[in-house]
Amino acid sequence: MTEKKKFGLSSFTLSVMAMILMFIDHLWATNIAGNNWMTSIGRLAFPIFAFMISEGYFHTKNFKKYIKRLLIFAIISEIPFNYMTGGNLIYPFDQNVLWTFIIALSLIHLNEKMRKKGKLWISILTAVITVILGWFIGTIAMVDYKGAGVLTVLTFYFFNQKKWWSYLAQFLTLFYLNVEMLGGMFFEIMIFGSKISISQQGLALFALIPIWLYNEQRGYDSKTYQYIKYWFYPAHIAILCLLARF
Fold first, then answer.
1. Which of 2, 96, 105, 152 can bridge 81 by disulfide, Cβ–Cβ 3.0-4.6 Å?
2. Are 134 and 155 in contact (CB under 8 A)?
3. What span, in angstroms and rounded, lies between the C-alpha atoms of 103 and 135?
4. What does the DSSP assignment read for 106-174?
5. Residue 88, strand partner residues
6. pTM (2 decimals)?
7. What are the tens digits of pLDDT across the range 123-168?
């Protein structure tokens, strides 16, 4: 049975968009330094991936297989990621983003198990505990985007309804995570003769536009594309690192 087309962006379109944005960001990090516009638009990639990971939890038929695949590719991706971020085979100060997603998915799974008990106070308590744990584990494990990265995935889990208050909560939470927690470089722009400082990491908020246009449809899908999607992360990093050596 084919899906009836709806206005908006499918899961396929969002994932391709995120992969392109991530590639541009990593191209800047490895081969084309100085073009800060590349890493600026690359800020949009992570929130889209975080959203897709959260959505993936609700659509997977087998959570154990889902997280097992991520675990396998997290291990495969670690060496290329170490070379990209630290220039060495082993670089303990930054772990690839798939570990961020594994931590977040584990906490989402815990929330879902507690929610099924049917008691509101248990669900609320679990949510509070997992937010604290997500920030703590992500930070001490030094995964990509640290604790803020884990909390980004949890944000899309907790506020997954297509309601105005859910959109507002996503915006406010992502603003705090990206501008206040992650911070990073600021650049100045002139508006009507006045200088305004803009957080580069804050540009990640623009990812909410395609996310809000998600139409809850899969779009194009095949086993080949599924393999490409999982292999893209370690493969493109490895290729870019090799090109940077020549």
1. 96
2. no
3. 10
4. HHHHHHHHHHTT--HHHHHHHHHHHHHHHHHHHHHTTBTTHHHHHHHHHHHHHT-SSSHHHHHHHHHHH
5. none
6. 0.92
7. 999 999 999 999 999 999 999 999 999 999 999 999 999 999 999 9
